[in-house]
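Entry details:
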Amino acid sequence: MPGNLYLIPAPLGDSDPRYVLSGEVFERINTIDQYVVENIRTARRFLKRMGIGTPISNLKFYELNNHTSEVELSSYLTIMKQNNTGLMSEAGVPGVADPGAALISLAHEHRIRVIPLVGPSSILLAMMASGLNGQNFSFHGYLPVKSTARCNKIKHVEKLSKKENQSQLFIETPYRNNQLLNDIMKTCAPLTQLCIAADLTLANEYIYTCSIEEWRKKKPDLHKRPAIFILHA
């Protein structure tokens, strides 16, 4: 019988795991001795913070990130079949805006049971707190890096939002947040609503929704602050 693949959530930033993770996560990590992770060093540090009973040196870690080859990914099938495996993202829940989705797909293909555990999703937390349409929304991930292409994409999602009455979510690498915000300000219509949700679950959490017209009067500094952006026209 194959093992199970447990999707292990992690805190967003340096928030205390005790306040953002379910009790089942604390219990489950003490039954798993092999993990597929985005970054081994970060994963070890997280498990230490969780107070895992098993010595870290006794655990096995395998990396899955944007540099993992198809051959390496396929090799993880063998370890999943042998024992329970934990899949961990750098932050938040595995498989959502995360390379771990490839391993989950492989598990389903080979009838390995996938078990998600409760934890924080910055996308859903932002949507919950935005006051925008949570009945119909779309997540676009990262927008183009170059300003011209990015502005064109912003125009496209704004039109889509208006046509479909759909909230449009996207993210950016934190050190490029201010450039993205500048392009939103110069591209969107004054009455389009924008929610900015930054540093979710952390002490300096910032969540605010208002029109583009209002944002232009009080544009925040988002440099190096993990953030979710939500547009609704």
